[in-house]
Structure formats: C-alpha cells, structure tokens
Amino acid sequence: MSQKLKIALPKGSLQEPTIKLLKQAGYNVYTSDRGLRPSSDDSELDIYMIRAQEIGRYLEQGFIDCGITGLDWAWEHEDALEDLAELPYSRATVRPTKWVLVVPEDSPIKTVEDLEGKRIATEGVGITQRYLDQKGVSAKIEFSWGATEVKVPDLVDAIVDVTETGSSIRANKLRIVDTLLTSFPHFYAGKEACKNEWKREKMERMVLMLKACIEARGKVGLKLNLPEKALPELLELLPSLHGPTVSHLATEGWVAVDTIIEEKVARSLIPDLKLVGAEGIIEYPLSKIVQ
Amino acid sequence: MSQKLKIALPKGSLQEPTIKLLKQAGYNVYTSDRGLRPSSDDSELDIYMIRAQEIGRYLEQGFIDCGITGLDWAWEHEDALEDLAELPYSRATVRPTKWVLVVPEDSPIKTVEDLEGKRIATEGVGITQRYLDQKGVSAKIEFSWGATEVKVPDLVDAIVDVTETGSSIRANKLRIVDTLLTSFPHFYAGKEACKNEWKREKMERMVLMLKACIEARGKVGLKLNLPEKALPELLELLPSLHGPTVSHLATEGWVAVDTIIEEKVARSLIPDLKLVGAEGIIEYPLSKIVQ
Amino acid sequence: MSQKLKIALPKGSLQEPTIKLLKQAGYNVYTSDRGLRPSSDDSELDIYMIRAQEIGRYLEQGFIDCGITGLDWAWEHEDALEDLAELPYSRATVRPTKWVLVVPEDSPIKTVEDLEGKRIATEGVGITQRYLDQKGVSAKIEFSWGATEVKVPDLVDAIVDVTETGSSIRANKLRIVDTLLTSFPHFYAGKEACKNEWKREKMERMVLMLKACIEARGKVGLKLNLPEKALPELLELLPSLHGPTVSHLATEGWVAVDTIIEEKVARSLIPDLKLVGAEGIIEYPLSKIVQ
Amino acid sequence: MSQKLKIALPKGSLQEPTIKLLKQAGYNVYTSDRGLRPSSDDSELDIYMIRAQEIGRYLEQGFIDCGITGLDWAWEHEDALEDLAELPYSRATVRPTKWVLVVPEDSPIKTVEDLEGKRIATEGVGITQRYLDQKGVSAKIEFSWGATEVKVPDLVDAIVDVTETGSSIRANKLRIVDTLLTSFPHFYAGKEACKNEWKREKMERMVLMLKACIEARGKVGLKLNLPEKALPELLELLPSLHGPTVSHLATEGWVAVDTIIEEKVARSLIPDLKLVGAEGIIEYPLSKIVQ
Amino acid sequence: MSQKLKIALPKGSLQEPTIKLLKQAGYNVYTSDRGLRPSSDDSELDIYMIRAQEIGRYLEQGFIDCGITGLDWAWEHEDALEDLAELPYSRATVRPTKWVLVVPEDSPIKTVEDLEGKRIATEGVGITQRYLDQKGVSAKIEFSWGATEVKVPDLVDAIVDVTETGSSIRANKLRIVDTLLTSFPHFYAGKEACKNEWKREKMERMVLMLKACIEARGKVGLKLNLPEKALPELLELLPSLHGPTVSHLATEGWVAVDTIIEEKVARSLIPDLKLVGAEGIIEYPLSKIVQ
Amino acid sequence: MSQKLKIALPKGSLQEPTIKLLKQAGYNVYTSDRGLRPSSDDSELDIYMIRAQEIGRYLEQGFIDCGITGLDWAWEHEDALEDLAELPYSRATVRPTKWVLVVPEDSPIKTVEDLEGKRIATEGVGITQRYLDQKGVSAKIEFSWGATEVKVPDLVDAIVDVTETGSSIRANKLRIVDTLLTSFPHFYAGKEACKNEWKREKMERMVLMLKACIEARGKVGLKLNLPEKALPELLELLPSLHGPTVSHLATEGWVAVDTIIEEKVARSLIPDLKLVGAEGIIEYPLSKIVQ
Predict the structure, then answer these.
(1) Is residue E224 part of a domain?
(2) Which of B65, C283, E6, F189 could form a disulfide with E65 if both were Cys (CB 3.0 to 4.6 A apart)?
(3) Which of B53, B54, B147 is the closest to A11 by Cβ?
(4) Same domain (yes/no): B139, B149
(5) With an 8 Å Cβ cutoff, is A125 touching chain E?
(6) Whether residue E141 sits in one domain with residue E153
C-alpha cells in the first residue's frame, strides 16, 4: 500500500482561503456538504477538516502528521511541533490576527499585573493562560462562547479577544491594555512525522509550492525594451529583490528586460522607467514565484 | 430610581426566534449591529445577549435575574435555578433538540458502560459529564469546537452531539448508543431574583404572555352557525380543550358557535361539522390564547 | 395494513403553490432535496411528485389514484378521468394559463384552417393534436423543448404556446390566431379509485378542504355594530353571497353583524356602511370558508 | 367618457410602502418595469409615479388632482394645496422624517442667526429657504446631490439634512443646531380638484380607507368570556378608545366581550384581565378599523 | 449583400459556458432578455439560441449551417452531420455528460437484453432508441419530462438518465446496468454548409480559436533562467508536449527558458526544476494556445 | 509637513469602477461605511468622495485640487478647469454616456429651435442651459429628480436625459431630436493646482498610470516562434500599433516574437499567423501598457 500524509486543514473562517491557496499551489481539495472527509486530486494526501483551535492538539497527540493553523491556536503546543513555514495569508486582508487584553475605558486596570486575582473571559483560554504564565500573573480565566466584548464590566473584569482594526473596541468604549500575540497561519508538522523521510520530503514540497503562491500575490511581471547603454541606469532603479532577465533584441543595440516588481511600487517606478528611456513597458500578472 | 429586571436572551441560532416570540408577546427588543446592549420598549427590562451555553452560569453566579435558554445548557446548573416555564419553540421546527451518544456503526461500544476509560469529543462537556456521572461511568471528555461527527473513529472513540432527524448520523455511518436529553427552551430565574416580589411578578407576567403566544401557534379560531338542537351533537365532535362560546343569533332557533381548534385536526373535523348541520363555517387566525 | 391513497402532485412551477395550498388545508407535505418520495403528516397518503405533464398519463394507466394537475395537461386523457374540482390557483397570479396558436404578425395564416399541411412547434403536442382533431385540420406537430417563440418563421410556420399577458407575443412581433384552452389546476381521480368507497370519501374530504382555502383567498371578515332598525337598509347593501350572522348586543336596540365580503368590494362598501349608521367597523383576515 | 382622478404616488423610498398601503386599502396598483404609467384595478384612477420632491409642484401647477407625499416636500407649496389627511406611515419604521440644521461639533455657529451670510448645502433647498425666511436670516443655499454630511467644514459652513436616530450625526462629529421640520406623508389635493364634487367624494373615500388601514396597524382584536357581574370592573380596565361589543352567552350569567386594543398595551392588560375573572382570552389580528 | 453563417448555440445549461467560451475566443455574443435573436460583434454571424436537444434536428433539416451541441443530442442525427471538433468543456466541471441505463438495486434486470418488452422512461428518447437498436432489443420507451429517477419501480421498469458522480443514483437505491454514451459538446456542420467554401473556411477559423481557448484551460506558462549546460537535464524533466522556447541571456552561459505546462503537474515538476539548477522560476497565466 | 494633493472621486454609479481603476493603477482607496473621508495607501493624497455632478463646482471654487468626473457634469465649468486626460471607462460597458433631447413620437417639435418658450425637464440643468445658450434658444428648464421619461407630454414639452441603447426611449414612444453631448470620465485639475509644480507632477504621474491601465483593457500579449526568414511577412500582418519585440532563439534560424494586439482582432489575426509559419502561438493577459 502506498504512503499517505495525514494533513489537517482549518475548518471555519480560514477554510475557504486555505483551500483556494492549495488550489493555486496545485492541490485541488474537494469538500463535501455531508460532513464527509474531503477528497483531493493528490492520492498521497489524507485530508481532515478540523477546527483551527484543535489542530495543535491532534498534532501533538500524533493522530495527524501535519496541518495548517494559526500561530495563536498552536501557541500552547509550540514545544511539541515543528514550524515549517509562516504563510502570511488570512481570511480577508493580509493583516495578521491580533489578540489583545481589553478592559473598559474607565477601568482601574492599567497593566497586566493589575489582573492578579481578577476574572477574564476569552475564547482563547490556552493563549491567555500561556501569556499570564509568562507574566507571572494568576487570574481566573473563563471560557467565552462568543459576544465576549459585551461582558465587561458587568460579567467579568477583562477580556482577551481578537481585533482587526480596533474600531469595534472603541465603539464598545473599551481600552487595550496589552497585545498578547499577532498571528498568521503556519504549516506545522508533528515530531514523529518529521522523522519519516518520505513524509518530510512531501511536506517540504508542499511548503515550497504554497510559499511560491504567496510570494506571487502582490507582485507582477514587467517587460520593457531599452537601449543597451541605458541598462546600468535602469538597474539602479529596479529593486534588487530579483535580478532581471536581460536578453538581446534583434534590433542592434537594444535589450529586452523582464523582471518582477511589487505591485505597490509600480506607481512610482514606471514613470521613472520612462525617464531613462524604456519603451513598450507592459505589466502582466503572475501566479507563482519560486524563491 | 425605578426597578429593573436583568434578563438574558440567547445569542446565536435561538436569537431570532426568541426575539420574534418576545415581539409577538408585546416586548419589542432592538438589537444593535455594533455589539451594544439591546434596547426595548419596556423600560423595566435590562437585556443581555449571552450565548445560550453561558446563561445558566451567569444566572447561577447571580449577575442576571432571569433568562431564556435551552434545558440542555442549563442542565448542569439545574439545582441553582428556578424553572418558570418550558417554552416549546425552536429555531426552525417545533421539534426539541436531541443530544445523543454516537459511535461508528461497527464500533464494539454497545452501551454507555462500554465507554469506561474511553475518549469522547463533544461541544456539551457539562451535559456529557452530568450524564456520565448519573451512569457511574468515567471517561475522558474532550471539548470539541465543531465538526464533531467526523472525529470518530480516527481521533476519539465516541461523540456526544445534537441531532435533528438522524439523517446526518446515517450519512456518516454512525450509530446512536443512547439519548442523553431532549431539550426545549425554558424561562429560568435565579434564586435571589425569585425572592424579590416585584421581580417575581414581572417574570410571571412575561411568562403568561410568552405562553399565550406559543399556545396560539398551531391553533385557529372556528366560527359557525348551527340549529340550536344540533348543539349536543356538535359538542361531542369538538375537542374538549376549550369550551366553545355559544351565543343566540337573531334568527330564532339558531346559535353562533365560536371555538378554538388545533390546526391539524381541522382537516378531519370540518367535514364532520358539515354533517351535523353546521353552516357558514369559517376559520380565522389567532395571535394569542391565554389559558 | 391500513388503506393508502396514492396522490400525484405537480413537480415544477406549480409545486410550491400546490404544497402551500395543501398546508393551508391542513396537509403538511415534506419534500426532500435528494429526490426521494415526499412524506406528509397524513399517514393515509402516498405522495408522488410527478411533472404536471405526466400526471394524466399515469392516472389513466392506473398507477396512481388521484392527482392535481392543470386542465391543459390532463385534457387529452379527459375521457379516462373523473374531474372532482377546479382549483383556481396558479403560480403567481390568479389568472388561468392560456394556450394560444401564434404566427408572425405578417404571416398569411389567418385561421386554424390555414394550417393544413404546415409545421407547428409546441411543448403541448397532445393539446395541439386534440385541438386540430376537433377542428378537422391536419398538420405536422413538432415537439419543442422551449424557446418556442423564436422559431417562427425561420424554423416552423406556427407555434402553440402559453401566454400570460400577451406582452411577450407583441415584443416578438407575433399574432394570436386562436385560443386553444384556458386552464386552471384540477383535482382528478382515476376511474378505478372512484369505485373504492374509502378512497372516494378520502378524496372528497380533501377537495372540501382545498376548496375552503381557495374560497377564503380574496375574502375578509367584517364586523360592525348597528342600531337594530337600520338592519334592513344594511342587508340591502351587503352582497348576498353569505347571509350575515346577526346577534343582539347587551346595549338595548343594537345588533352586532358579522359577515364575509370580497376584499375588492371593501373600498366601495365600507364608506356606504358608515352612511347607514354602522359603528365600530373592523375587517379581519380569514383562512378558510366552507361552503 | 367616465370621470378620472389624477393621483400622484411618490417614486423612491416611499413607493413600496405607499403601494402596499393602497393594496391593503383595496386599491391594487401595478407598476411596470419599463417606465410606463402604473395601472390599477380602479378604473377611475389615473396614476402617476412622481418623485416625492416634485408632487407639490405639479399639484400647484394643476397638472394632477391629488397626491401622497411628505409634508417636507409639500411645505413650500402649502398655501396652494388642501391637506386632506396625515398618513403616519413611513419607509421602515413609524417614525417621522426629521430635517435638522447641522454644523461641525466645534463650529462657532450656535443658533440659526449665526448663519447670516454663510454657505449651506442641502438636498432640501425649498425647505431650507422657507425656514430661513421665517427666521429672517439670509444665507447662500447650495443644492447638494448627496453625501451632504461630509461637506462640512471643508466645502460649506452648515448643512440641512434628514436624520433618523442621530447616530450618523454623532459618527461624523457633527452637532444639531435646530430642527426645521418633522414630516409624515400626507394626502394632498389641488384647489381646483376640491371644487369638483365627484373628485372630492372620490378623494374622501380613499382617505377613509387609507386611514382605516393605518388605524389597524399596531392594534389587535381581543375576545373573552366574563361573568356578567364582573363587567364594570372590566370596563374600567379597558382603554376607552373603542367601546367593547358585549353580547350574552348561551350560558346564563355570562357575557362575551369583543374589543380592540393597542398591541403594545396587551402585555400589561391581559394579566390584569385574568385577575377580574376573564376566561378564554384570545387575541386575533385585524386589517382595518373604520373610525 | 455580405455572406452570413447561421450558427445555433445551445439554450439551457450549456448556454452560459458556451457564450463565455466564444467571448474568450474573440466572439462577443449579446443575448436579450426579451427572447429576441442574439446579436454579436461579428457581422458575418447569424445566431440562433436553440435547445441543445433540437440543434441536430434543425441542422439535418438544413435551416441552420452549424451549431454547438452535445454529442448525446446529435447522436441520432450523426449520419447527416459533419463533426468538426470535440470541445471538451461543460457546465461546471470538465467531466463529460454520461448517459446510463438504471434499474432499482433489487431489480431482476441485469443486462440490456433483460429489457426486452419492458417499459423505460427517459428524457433522451432518441439516444435510448439508437442504443436499443444497436443492441437489438425492443422495449417501450416513454418520454419523461423530468424527475425520472423516482419513477422506478412504481411507474416504469428502467430509466435512462444523465449522471455526474453516481451519488444521486446510490441515494435513490438504484443500480447502473450499462453506459450508453459519454458526451462533450461538439461543433457540428450541416452537409450543405460544408460544400460552401466561404462557410467552410469561416467555420474552420472559429474552430481553431475555440480549440485554442480550451487548450489554454488548465495550462500555464513557466519561465526560468538556467546555466546553459543544465539544459539537457531540464529538457528531460519537461513534458514533451510543447518544445520550450530557449533564448540566450545577456549573462554569459545562461539561457532563459519559456514553456507551457499543465497546471496539475506544476506541483511535482517545480521542486524538481530547482534541483537541476533553475532560478527565477515564475508561473504566469495563459489565455490561448494555438496548436 | 508633507505636501498633499486634494483629489475628488465621483460618488455614485462611477464610484466602484473608479476605485477599481485606481487600484489597478496602484492606488488602493479604502472607503468607509460610516460616511467618513476615504483613506488610501498613498499618504500624499487627500481623498474626497463627491457626487459627480458637484466636482466641477468645487474644483472651480478651489476647494479641491483635482478630480475625476464625467465631461457632462464638468462641461459648464470647462473654462475654469484643466482637462488632463480623457479616461474612457464607464460603469458597465465602454460606451460613453450620451445626453439627448427627447420629445413624444408625435410631438410637433422637430428641431431645437421649436423649443423656444417651451418647458423642459432634466436632471442636467447646467448641461441643458449651456446647450440652449449655444443654440440661441430660450426655454424654461425645470430640474427633474428622476423618472424624467414619463413626464412628457403630460407635465412638460420635452426632456433632456441620458440614454444608453435608445431602447428605453422607443419603449416609452419617444423620439430623439438632438444629441447634446457624449461623455466619458476625465481627469480635471483646478487652475491654481496646476501652477504648483509638485502638484502638477503628482497629477501627471497619476494620469500616466491610469492611462496605462485603460490602454491594457481589451489588449493581450501574443508570443510565437517563427523561422527568421518569415519575419517580413509576419510584420506585414501585425497591426503597427506597437512594434513587436523580436529575439533570437537558441535554435538556429528561428526567432521569438512577443507583441501586443487588440483582443478583438485575435480571431482574424491568429489563423493568418499560422499560415505564414508561426508556431507555439500563445496569448496571455496584460495589466498595464505604458505608451
């Protein structure tokens, strides 16, 4: 029987972007409405949809080989896992998830030390516990099933919650005391799986492809023609991140330049390229960049 | 300052039907997008939206006076609460929520006793613990954040989950070992709040109105005219649940009958009413029935 | 084993309004997404979802006992069926379906006789054949899978199609030559089923309830108080369709009148009622009227 | 040829609730997607869909006989129109539209007088002009096509805008200086149309029906049985707005009471009714109440 | 007057993907809501939207020159048509439509021969007839308007239906006896149209463009830089399907390679390319590949 | 403090395509639900969302430096603005907005001169006034809040309105008398802003990038390999708009050609390219073309 890699994907808000990223990387995962195990077009994969919160636990217990989940949920299992790559994508934006310790605007609590002996509600009991342990503070942590931000000050003294822009915190008249963690998804492997050579190589190939896709996001290809003598001036303008591919054109004294740039520098770079003599500048989309 | 009753409503899947029921009962609750406390047109109410799972806890701790939540989530706090009324409504249908102990079809586990020393995943840790305690069985209960039904047999030995029709259980090739609980929403009060006379009466009035609305669901009004002498025969046909209102018509020897019947008996009752001489039978909708 | 009535309901555009009508009549039918047979809360019914076009065929073949389908599709099986009731409801409006013979505006075809030897496209081959037979005309009838109205004049000489308002006919620059049929849903029974007494009574009770629901659509209840002496004047104003229920009030010389009127006459009737002295006029909704 | 009443309905946000109200009152209006004049089932009506802002202008010019539009938009034409009825409905809630004069929180403008010589942006140029004229203030009023609230203080000194809850005003850090007007829809007639007896009566009948529908909103019917001797006590409890209909029951010494109450008092009234001995209390919906 | 090619496009589930494919190929087709003939930006085309089932018939009758429709529906007209190209696209996936002969799981029918004298319901009467003729079996074929899979065994003995994954067949407890046909869309021409040189060339150009688009789906461009001496090793890795374009870079001893690969091999190919020394590997999207 | 460019973007139907175009050009604009000023990732921009109709006014008054709005709405401010570029994009299609003078089909008005002394309703009072002034015609222009096309002939004599396809004009039985203006969005600058060197250069860079994006719409890249000797023949076929990039392949006697073509000529060009010997023709998407 052929080898299999048991991989966990995060069910919930990260599910759709994760499956889209895998698809872009060449792994088509088919989920089922009826709660069955997903299938894929890679027969070497055994895929489990597991809540992001639980992937670390099952990796540590050794029931699965590897998984994609947020650093936040894996944090408390950190010592038992191999962190193969940070994959900086997320549900909607490219911003990381940020866990913050929050109190009412007019609360006497100013620092984490003021929490000693208080009550905290949070969906992230493990994250909060690890943080308090590091700070040497002892408080009662209560699991919150949601709607956490309306619990202070009536039901608890402080909460630990996820924030994106901070605007919901201001709207609820709350104040951030400290940031516990900022978190992107990572590709984690269990210790045992890493010792198996076949599994290790399989995981590394997946990581290579996933990183190639993320690398291509926010980047574009740029092609232009240039008098050969203007080349040094052009090279100075180009960001050094990848050396451009330069080839001679049929027209004597001209070269074609093909390079990769960050989409966000295009608006300042392209007008400058014209100034040094570039012609026929075109920008085209990319889908993977292997580093 | 005027008295206030602190009431918790269940945030989540029961939120919309609960607010609809309160509106029908005459209490308009306005929720806010921005996570603020809901307001209402009854200035004596202080409303908290709290997850159904947590209402029992905060009632027991005395932070709130009363609340509507499922019997299942309040079960472990039962001894500390007053159960003022069962309110048999639910998210979509009128069926109660049913918690079942489930294993793979081909599992050796046949009875709850076989779980001794095994691992169980469930969203209802408290419910499962109370059930195992009653059965005198000791097992490891693991909190599951969801997608519980795909965890057996790879990750755990058994699960405790909610089922509606059992069809998802069959689709996943699982088997029900036992039913822990069937559960409707209830109106619970804290012990302290019950000792306050004003709060007690306020809660009883709310319960009266809520029950009047539920009573009216699935019932209709029926009016008909009848020769007075056929009245005994008619009364035999009518279900005894409410005595009909009989009044004399201007036409000598005829009476008007106005009664309430269950909608589902209409299809067999109405043809029979015609047979005993009823005329001008009309059915009309009701919105409350006070018992 | 208990008796069963095999009933066919029309799958397609009539499905939803038919199931809604049955529900109103007290028969809750539950359809399944997975193509299975529908279930219901009446254990004496065996329900089949069959395309409206085919119900007549299977009734004639005796595979089912009764069914609801349009007169149009049952037309060619008319002699083999019992027509228990016309049920004037439809998908969106209360207008019947109208089948028309249509040609291009500038076609030389003026009457059905001009079709002799021509080619006609239609989704209703049976309807068209029966119509041509009655007219003694012989033409080639071609089954059309849809988009029939764009086939003239390029692909066929005439079409037979359903129209609602005629506006699509004008938009396509077509002309109506003749109307073949106007059609509402009917409740049909097979000849054999009618001979079975239990089935016959079961069908008659269903028809009674279905008609009571349709009768109530577009009608409302009206209650008012009136000086007794103004009663004759009032009775003249009221449409004769149902005699009103008149009862004496506790206040000497006054009567309460309760009656049913068509919703669409309310706007002219109610102002007149005030003129003859009616007070406390209120209008209320009805759900069934048994005739 | 028969008489016609030319009536304008407000196109825009009031369109849907206006057509719904007319339908409830017995006038079915059919609008067309293709921009054509609406039709109706009352052949005596000629219906025009005109923007709420323009109905007053065309009524004053005499092109139409009557129309439904907000008091705000008709205000500047007030002297040329007959105001037949206020119809307190609106797009979403039952709150009136409120026009306010608004400046930045930190603006030196404190009263309307401070606007002398300043620049104001508003969608309601006529409303603002009439208001300033009444106050004897002269300022430059600039028509605003929308997004008015972001114009202060960069582009203008003050704005006149519609507010519902004031929350958008606070979110934009603005301050209300004065309220110009609160406005519900009204039924207006032109002076000429009122002189025509047929048109006058037609309009009055429409107004009677429209008011009967609005009156029924937020009210319900209540029926109960009562020992006759408890009647005085009951009558004291009932709000005086409509005398209840009392009739004798077949059971000696008992009366049936049928009355109308406001939905929002039900929650306090019904528990009290039980206390005085009422039985079989049921609440039922109403669709029109004629006063 | 200029020449015109009469082309039929399939109305129904294939309509949208067909119009999208034509657009990608450079032919913009504009359909109208009002049932009119579609227009396009190619004035040499006369476009007809015809149900996929009927295109074969009208091609055979010579009313149109060419058309895109499924092999299944054209099958019975095969001898009268020229099959210019298979176009392997479909509504949702790239899988072909599969027609199967199906019976209840427990039916005695095991092979097509067992159907002799039985009754079969199907939407594809022509397909089924041609198949039975080839097998030398005689059975009664009944046209089914839909919901075919619920007809066995109550109404017919077997059905012929389309299946995608077979899951609906299992859910209905049915069994596949034989596969009649797997079918993709094809570009068909009528015999007469093929004899006209202008039409023939026009059709061949369309087919060239349509195939170029389908060829590009599921393929991507790949560019990389490589030490010239590693070229032989690289060429061995690359699938032979298209020879890569190799050009010299300005940097001595290095070449740029530009090639096309199937998207689904990228995940195994790219890691290997790195191993032979490729640098700056980027993947980019393609829209057409002309073979 | 750093320099800022105040730029106005058109709120309303152009908002979404404008923000999408800016994003493609490298300027990410973030709008807020709460009516606040938009932010962007270019800290040198101060962005105002202003209705397209008002941008010209505020540019002329000098409150903002530059803006994107339709030629139509800026027309009356033309003399006070600098027109930096036409940007031929629009809400849905690439067609410009067309303003037409319209009358009922049977109106006696045949030319603009016939409007002398008549009444015209229009949303574009400024546009219409400027047009009438140029024609030397004097008429009463009435601001219309919408639904303009139903106002003739009952309420006004003529209207000036926007048309896309003319189909709504025909459906309303109207006739076009004259076209006032066809209009695309433009990038306008105020006179003062143009005198500031920093602002001028900033605006020119933005215009360069915006035009590069629009240029790329409807164009594609084309790559092919060719025997060198066939190059002259190929160059004749290629549209002259951009000279192709020609480079030598590693294979002796072959060149690679990379060029840009209009998407709409591909369908006629590609088959011809094959005829002159091109191989490996692939088409790929572009995102910017700098001219």
Answers:
(1) yes
(2) E6
(3) B147
(4) yes
(5) no
(6) yes
* Interface residue C140 vs chain D (CB under 8 A): no
Q: Which chains touch D (3 or more CB pairs under 8 A)?
A: B, C, F
- The model's pTM is 0.84
For the stretch D171-230, pLDDT in tens is 778 999 999 999 999 999 999 999 999 999 999 999 999 999 999 988 999 999 999 999
C38 and C79, same domain (yes or no):
yes
Same domain, D13 and D86: yes
For residues B205 and B174, membership in a common domain is answered with no
Nearest to D35 among F11, F149, F155 (CB): F149
The closest alpha carbon to F26, from F199, F219, F212, F286, belongs to F212
* pLDDT value for C171: 74
CATH number for the domain spanning C117: value is 3.40.190.10
Distance CA C53, CA C74 (A): 8
For residue C261, the domain's CATH number is: 3.30.70.120
Whether residues C135 and C158 fall in one domain: yes
The β-bridge partners of D184 are none
The residue among E224, E245, E283, E286 with the most chain A CBs within 10 A of its CB, best to mutate, is E283
Task: Say whether the C–D interface has 3 or more Cβ pairs within 8 Å.
Answer: yes
Q: Which residues of E touch A288 (CB under 8 A)?
A: 266, 270, 281-283
Could you tell me if residue E16 is inside a domain?
Answer: yes
- F281 close contact with E: CB closer than 8 A: yes
Ranges of residues in chain E whose predicted pLDDT is under 50: none
Q: Of E221, E186, E229, give the one whose Cα is nearest residue E206.
A: E186
Pairwise CA distance, residues B53 & B76, whole Å: 11
Q: Would the CB atoms of C54 and E145 count as touching at under 8 Å?
A: yes
pLDDT at residue D36, rounded to an integer: 64
Q: Can you give the pLDDT at residue C243?
A: 74
Closest to A151 in 3D by CA, of A192, A105, A104: A104
A46-59 per-position pLDDT tens digit: 999 999 999 999 99
F79-108 in b/e form (b: 16+ CB < 10 A) is ebbeebbebebbeeeeebbbbbbbbbeebe
Pairing of strands B254-262, B245-248: antiparallel
Q: For residue F151, what are its two tokens? A: 């106002």
DSSP, collapsed to helix, strand or coil, labels residue D8 as strand
Residue that is written with structure tokens 């227009």 in the block: E39
Annotate A117-155 with b (16+ C-beta within 10 A) or e (fewer).
ebbbbbbbbbbbbbbbeebebebebbebbebbbbbbeeb
DSSP string, D198-256: HHHHHHHHHHHHHHHHHHHTTEEEEEEEEEGGGHHHHHHHS-TTSPPEEEE-SSTTEEE
Number of residues that this document lists for chain E? 291
Among A268, A274, A280, the residue with its CB nearest the CB of F245 is A280
The span from the CA of D125 to the CA of D76, in Å, is 10
Residues C102 and C170 both lie in one domain: yes
In DSSP terms, which residues pair with A247 in a beta bridge?
A256
Spatial separation of the C-alpha atoms in residues D255 and D228, rounded to whole Å = 6
**H-state helical runs in chain E:** 15-24, 52-60, 71-74, 125-135, 167-171, 191-195, 197-216, 231-237, 266-275
Number of domains in chain C: 3
Query: Residue F140 — very low, low, confident or very high, per pLDDT cuts 50/70/90?
Result: very high
ipTM of model: 0.84
In a domain, A115, yes or no: yes
The answer to whether position E291 is within a domain reads no
D223 Cβ under 8 Å from any chain B Cβ? yes
Note down the domain range covering C27: 5-93+184-216
Asked if F148 contacts F128 with a C-beta cutoff of 8 angstroms, the reply is no
The phi and psi torsions of B136 (rounded to 5 degrees) equal: 70, 30
C85 shares its domain with C102? no
Give the bridge partners for D257, in sequence order.
D224, D246
The structure tokens 């018509």 sit at: B249
